[in-house]
Amino acid sequence: MTTAQAAGRALSPLDRAVSRIKQRVLPLFVIMFIVNYIDRVNIGFVRTHLAADIGIGTAAYGLGAGLFFVGYAIFEVPSNMLLQKYGAKAWLTRIMLTWGIAATAMAFVQGETSFYVLRFLLGVAEAGFFPGVIYYFTQWLPNGERGKAMAIFLSGSALASILSGPISGALLQIEGGGLHGWQWMFIIEGLASVALCGFVWFWLDSRPADAKWLTQSERDLIGNAIAAEQAEREKTKPAHISAWTLLRDSQIVIFCFIYFSISLTIYGATFWLPSIIRKMGAYSDFQVGLFNSIPWIISIIAMYLFASLAARFKFQQAWAAAALIIAAIGMYVSTFGGPVFAFVSICFAAVGFKAASSLFWPIPQSYLDARIAAAVIALINSLGNLGGFVAPTTFGFLEQKTGSIQGGLYALAATSVVAAIVVFFARTTAHSAAIAGNK
């Protein structure tokens, strides 16, 4: 390599500042997401234990699994608005502490009612975490870096899906102290979140201006870059625009539907995959956990591949649409054979729905005005995540009434196809006239 080539490849001062920010916060956010996701989905591994020990049936399990997302949806927007008021450091620490306490309390479920209440409270406690991190990126990273940061952050959910199986399977084998293995699983995994919140408090800063680990020059570069991007957005939007005005924008409704469709498929697979694996053979809890990791290992590779292709060839919507079509095909063909064929098909579907999840968020981010981004991102995430309520609740009802979830899988496939068409034509820039007309 010549000296000129080396100079051409040298990082600019802004790129160096961005690199330092990502090295500082992304590993922590990934770890937080891993712990968060495990606490959210670990009930997928205890369905049979809850039925045997406290009599929670299939329909009740599906409803309880889904009620998490109702609490999440109701309190998502208020939580994210409070994050803006109190700062990311204080509010993300609070979120971690309360969700860890609620996750630990799941160990003391006595029946259907307490199961419903604690799942709902867990959703309330977690509300604001995911959109809070996305909003954090809008305050710290230039637009061109957010998609890559999101792909790394979202890998936390895939890593959590990989790790949750073996970890939860191993913890389920603990017996003692008058507690069952599923109770120890909830206690240990919940207290891990409580312990991590202390580190979050000391490690995070709310704004680039507060980051003493950046030089003054780097703080200025980041602040100026974010301000310049906001100024560009304001050229296509009225100078004064309320959150409620933009929330009436039909494009926001479209974003909510797209993310709802993605969440529907993700959580339909997440909560029912361990049950499909158990039908494949007489496996132990730990073996079920190992099998459960396979689709998510594949999905991590797919997420990075799709993110790289989207960055190289542009047109984010087309890549998101392609990923959703792959998810639709996988969910549809999973109904053609036995449990082993269904498992392989869901592995294929995971390539699509996890890649679609990471490809989706840069689309509304590029559309939104930074002044109301927190509220609208929270709205999209909260309403979209209601797919996590609809999928397990519907699957539980179908299995209890018909003995099969085939109809639910058909519905997931159809919804993914519709979402693929919608996201392909989604706008990434707003028109001032259209927004002004909503006033």
Automatic annotation (TrEMBL):
<feature type="transmembrane region" description="Helical">
    <location>
        <begin position="252"/>
        <end position="273"/>
    </location>
</feature>
<feature type="transmembrane region" description="Helical">
    <location>
        <begin position="21"/>
        <end position="38"/>
    </location>
</feature>
<protein>
    <submittedName>
        <fullName>MFS transporter</fullName>
    </submittedName>
</protein>
<feature type="transmembrane region" description="Helical">
    <location>
        <begin position="318"/>
        <end position="334"/>
    </location>
</feature>
<feature type="transmembrane region" description="Helical">
    <location>
        <begin position="50"/>
        <end position="75"/>
    </location>
</feature>
<dbReference type="Pfam" id="PF07690">
    <property type="entry name" value="MFS_1"/>
</dbReference>
<keyword id="KW-0472">Membrane</keyword>
<keyword id="KW-0813">Transport</keyword>
<feature type="transmembrane region" description="Helical">
    <location>
        <begin position="340"/>
        <end position="361"/>
    </location>
</feature>
<feature type="transmembrane region" description="Helical">
    <location>
        <begin position="115"/>
        <end position="137"/>
    </location>
</feature>
<feature type="transmembrane region" description="Helical">
    <location>
        <begin position="373"/>
        <end position="395"/>
    </location>
</feature>
<feature type="domain" description="Major facilitator superfamily (MFS) profile">
    <location>
        <begin position="25"/>
        <end position="431"/>
    </location>
</feature>
<dbReference type="InterPro" id="IPR020846">
    <property type="entry name" value="MFS_dom"/>
</dbReference>
<keyword id="KW-1133">Transmembrane helix</keyword>
<dbReference type="InterPro" id="IPR011701">
    <property type="entry name" value="MFS"/>
</dbReference>
<feature type="transmembrane region" description="Helical">
    <location>
        <begin position="149"/>
        <end position="172"/>
    </location>
</feature>
<feature type="transmembrane region" description="Helical">
    <location>
        <begin position="293"/>
        <end position="311"/>
    </location>
</feature>
<dbReference type="InterPro" id="IPR036259">
    <property type="entry name" value="MFS_trans_sf"/>
</dbReference>
<keyword id="KW-0812">Transmembrane</keyword>
<feature type="transmembrane region" description="Helical">
    <location>
        <begin position="91"/>
        <end position="109"/>
    </location>
</feature>
<feature type="transmembrane region" description="Helical">
    <location>
        <begin position="184"/>
        <end position="204"/>
    </location>
</feature>
<feature type="transmembrane region" description="Helical">
    <location>
        <begin position="407"/>
        <end position="426"/>
    </location>
</feature>
